[in-house]
Request: fold
Amino acid sequence: MRILPDWISIGYITGAHGIQGDVRVVLLSDRPEKFDKLKKIKLESSAGEIGFFNIEKVRRHGKFVLVKFEEIETRDSAMSLKGASLQIKRESCPRLPADEFYHFELIGLVARSSEGLVLGKVVDILDMPANDIYVISDGKHEYLIPAVKQMIKKIDLKNEEMIIQLIEGLID
Reply:
């Protein structure tokens, strides 16, 4: 049985923006509106939890989101957060339409061919311009499977599996 994370990363801080303590955030979502209703967020660095911060203001700036935290008032303080991950509780994630999934829901699923052959587990998801690519590994081999309806026949979260329609040459 897979254990899903309690906290989900929705972006990371790339640095400061301006002199008022705003931070520049790269989103890990194609739904920037997620930020619009957030009031509080958890920040975590590679060294561990930094703490909880109150969101004062959010605005879009090109491909980034600019966030102003109530607790951060200077550029230096904002720069100290560089690299931190912005996280929300898993149950706070907005519901997705049927046949759409969060990456954290797919990581760890057992990948099987439509004939029943176990290919391995989903270990990563690559965000590509045309479509995502699922990285499937059995510990010895790694397979790159396009996340398109012609290939992905079924995603069953309850049974923790992904059914893939293999085409010639895909896993050879």
